[in-house]
Structure formats: structure tokens, C-alpha cells
Specification:
The chain is mainly α. The chain has five helices and no strands. Helix 1 runs antiparallel to helix 2.
């Protein structure tokens, strides 16, 4: 595993900016009037689908930059498509199941990201950033699931 270094400010700021829509949509899903809460929940699912797919793409990029052998990179390319496929599937489910599926998808991808970092194929600061952001995202999805009005 690479030695831990400070998270670059740009990655930290942009990562947390990406959490803002999760927080706002979850808050509206929980506290908004029922008609608006339902729309916020649908938007939360859609945004979760987009971001989970994006995070799978980040793994694709790490595989591209990897010095691993061809077979290992091929496995990583295949695994990096799983988040987008899972997110796409979740988009067809009723909101409670979609929220739960997305939360599980983010947790599974975090586990894979942490393993990639332990193998030295991600920057040393990446695990700390991913734990922070994934914790916040899963909290938002879970709040909408458990406390939401739809």
C-alpha cells in the first residue's frame, strides 16, 4: 500500500460538492411535503445511479493507469463495469429498493476501492477520501429510505 498523504484540496472539495445533492435531496425526501418528497426521492435515486456509475468509471481509470499484467487489468476493467450495471438495474426498482440497492452498491465499491488501495493501485490518500464520501452518501440514502415519505 502506498504511504498515506494528505487528500488534495481539489479532490476533497469536489468530492464533498458531489455529496451536496445527496444531502439536499435526502433532506427534502424526509422533510418536504409528500408531493415534493416523492420527486426528491426519484431525483435522489437518479443522482445515485449517475454517481455510482461515475465511481465505477474511476476504477476503470485506475486500471488504465495500472502497471498490472494484462489479465489483472482485464479483471479490473470487468469489475469496474459492475457499479454502472447495478445502478442501472436499481433504476427500475421501486424507490425503497432502489435506495437500498444503491447504498449497498456504494458500500461494495468502497470495499473494492480499499482493496485496490491496499494493492497500491490507488493513491495513498484515496481510501480516506472514499471512506468520508461513501459514509456521507450511504447516510443520505439510508435516511431517505428509513425516514422518507415515499
Amino acid at each position: 500500500m502506498q504511504q498515506a498523504v494528505a487528500i488534495p484540496r481539489s479532490a476533497l472539495a469536489l468530492g464533498w460538492l458531489g455529496v451536496v445533492p445527496f444531502a439536499i435531496l435526502a433532506a427534502v425526501s424526509v422533510a418536504g411535503p409528500p408531493s415534493i418528497a416523492a420527486a426528491a426521492t426519484a431525483a435522489l435515486v437518479l443522482y445515485g445511479v449517475v454517481i455510482l456509475s461515475f465511481m465505477g468509471g474511476a476504477q476503470w481509470g485506475l486500471a488504465l493507469a495500472s502497471a498490472e499484467d494484462i489479465a489483472a487489468r482485464a479483471r479490473r476493467f470487468a469489475i469496474s463495469t459492475a457499479p454502472a450495471l447495478a445502478a442501472f438495474g436499481a433504476s427500475f426498482l421501486p424507490a425503497p429498493y432502489a435506495l437500498a440497492g444503491l447504498a449497498l452498491g456504494f458500500i461494495a465499491l468502497l470495499a473494492y476501492d480499499l482493496a485496490a488501495a491496499r494493492r497500491g493501485v490507488a493513491p495513498g490518500w484515496y481510501p480516506a477520501l472514499r471512506v468520508q464520501l461513501t459514509s456521507a452518501v450511504v447516510l443520505c440514502l439510508s435516511a431517505a429510505l428509513v425516514l422518507g415519505k415515499s
